[in-house]
Amino acid sequence: EGSGLNKHLSDYVGRFRVSPSDFLDGIYRFRYAQKAFSPVRHELITGVGPKALRLQVGYLFFKQTNTTSEFGDREQIALALNSRVTERWSARLGHTRNLGRDEGALATGAGLTYEDECFIFDAGLSRSYTHDRDFRPTDTVLFRLMFKTLGEVRTSAR
What we know:
single chain, nine-stranded antiparallel β-sheet
């Protein structure tokens, strides 16, 4: 009930992607209500700049579709700055902010990644500002080591 699966016609959904150059791209995703053609979801993500220093801006809007849900409408903006420092090293900064009812920061993070032919090492630090009955703001330090070919199985026919 309330999911929309009990109807024969769906809402109008779609996606547009534009990439006029290597330095500019954008994606727009949407969902409009089938009967009233009113907006239910908008998502716009735009990237500007070369790999050496790239800025991404994202906007997200969700309209509450189920009246029994504890979550209302959601509206947020996200900013990310990514830099390919060298051929093997890259860095990132990001921040997400709620624009809706409980306006404020949602998450902030930074990270550094090393990648070569054999493995990827990623180190990140993030802060989640989410607070609720069961969740409190948290800080996370994460280290990941990924071996690119570990566990790979190959067969050849002769």
